[in-house]
Fold:
Amino acid sequence: MSVSGVLIVVMAVLFACGVYAMLERSLTRVLIGFLLLGNAANLLLLIVMGFPGTAPFFGSGDPDEFSDPLPQALMLTAIVITFAVSAFLLALIYRSWQLGQADTVEDDEEDIAIRERGAETDESMDEEVEDTDATTDFVDVDTSPITVLDSRDVPALRDDAPTDTAGGAR
Structure:
């Protein structure tokens, strides 16, 4: 059995175009990218399914000739998930168009503040000098503060979980 190289190339192009479209700021392009990814996932499952066989309820043939139902079930699940997320994205696009006459995602003040804070943190991390005398990641500690205790190490701890006894077995 050999898989068609054309199917693999088409699937790879669909995945690449879908990811590229989802990286845009327009919700319509995100929807198109998600639909491309859904179709690429269905094509991947079609490729993985392999050679089509006979259905198990169709006669009493050889079990080696039966088709695998798992990729078929996964493809149906992928179709349902793609449809549900597409409906949600369409609702988001419609609401965004109602509110602002545009479907692009704009930065608000919090996004800008977080972006600037991240740049400041990166600059301060570059200026930091590492201490080469430390033996662990914990400052002013010679050894790791994590210790593993057993019930014999601490007398107050005891195991009072129920145990099966020979007389209590049914």
